[in-house]
UniProtKB/TrEMBL annotation:
PROSITE patterns: CYTC. Residues 1-21 form the signal peptide. InterPro entries: Cyt_c-like_dom, Cyt_c-like_dom_sf, Cytochrome_c-type_DH. GO terms for molecular function: electron transfer activity; heme binding; metal ion binding. It comes from the Bacteria. Residues 25-224 form the Cytochrome c domain. It holds the Pfam family Cytochrom_C. This is C-type cytochrome. It comes from Histidinibacterium aquaticum. Keywords: Heme, Iron, Metal-binding, Signal. The keyword Hydrolase does not apply.
């Protein structure tokens, strides 16, 4: 995912026309970040996919910029964290969602985002287990191998390394290994499940049942090296949001 954007703009004392141009640049950057990282769940029109992904259009909670910074930086339940976003990224995406789809909450500048980033604390998380606690069964994981090979490997590769099996496909993000763990570190399996079933396969989202999606996730976790346990991973958000994705402790 491309999360870096352009450098900071002009000083606050710049001419009004320049300030307006700066705001335009910020909103353009915010739109790019949103479309790349957020639109698959919250939708390009801001209407979301309730109840799992709330609408941002007309959402009064966006009036609090600290809440936006907190949720984007730390994530919460079904929303993944984006800890690599810097103040400029946060200002851009916050400004975009606060001023799009009829919202009129105003923009957030980079210095304000930097102050908020330094002051916000992680939200209360209810997760008590990690992927290293045996959250799926071996039968579940291996039973999904053919599902993965048919629906995912053409883009993500048989070895889950992002090298597509189909020659004319562009490389896709890896689904195991260091890069995968870095992308989802601190998020819940519920977040991964919601993202996967709402956006994958990219050519036909939703082609599998909820059970098949969670079985594929069990296969991915197993391939990454997470241990199997005695109970299968269920397609139940209450359970999945209780399981955190994180690197194995050394």
């Amino acid at each position: 995912m491309t999360r870096r954007v352009l450098a900071a703009g002009f000083a606050a004392l710049a001419l009004p026309t320049i300030a307006l141009a700066q705001d335009g640049d910020l909103l353009g950057e915010g739109e790019q970040i949103f479309e790349t990282n957020c639109a698959q769940c919250h939708q390009s029109d801001g209407e979301g996919l309730p109840p799992n992904f709330p609408a941002l259009a007309g959402n009064d909670r966006l009036s609090d910029p600290s809440l936006i910074v907190q949720r984007v930086h730390y994530g919460l339940k079904s929303m993944p964290a984006f800890p690599d976003f810097g103040p400029r990224d946060l200002a851009a995406v916050a400004s975009y969602v606060r001023t799009s789809w009829g919202n009129d909450f105003g923009t957030v500048d980079e210095s304000q985002a930097e102050e908020l980033l330094a002051s916000v604390e992680p939200p209360e998380q209810v997760a008590t287990r990690t992927i290293w606690d045996g959250v799926f069964t071996e039968d579940q994981a291996q039973g999904a191998r053919l599902l993965y090979q048919g629906g995912c490997a053409p883009c993500h590769g048989s070895r889950l390394n992002g090298a597509p099996d189909t020659a004319d496909m562009s490389p896709a993000p890896p689904l195991a290994g260091t890069a995968y763990m870095r992308s989802w570190n601190g998020s819940t399996v519920g977040s991964l499940f919601e993202f996967t079933r709402s956006s994958m396969p990219i050519s036909n989202p939703g082609q599998f049942t909820d059970q098949q999606y969670i079985d594929i996730i069990a296969y991915m976790l197993s391939y990454h090296g997470a241990p199997a346990g005695d109970e299968p991973l269920p397609p139940d958000l209450d359970v999945l949001n209780d399981i955190v994705i994180e690197p194995e402790e050394e």
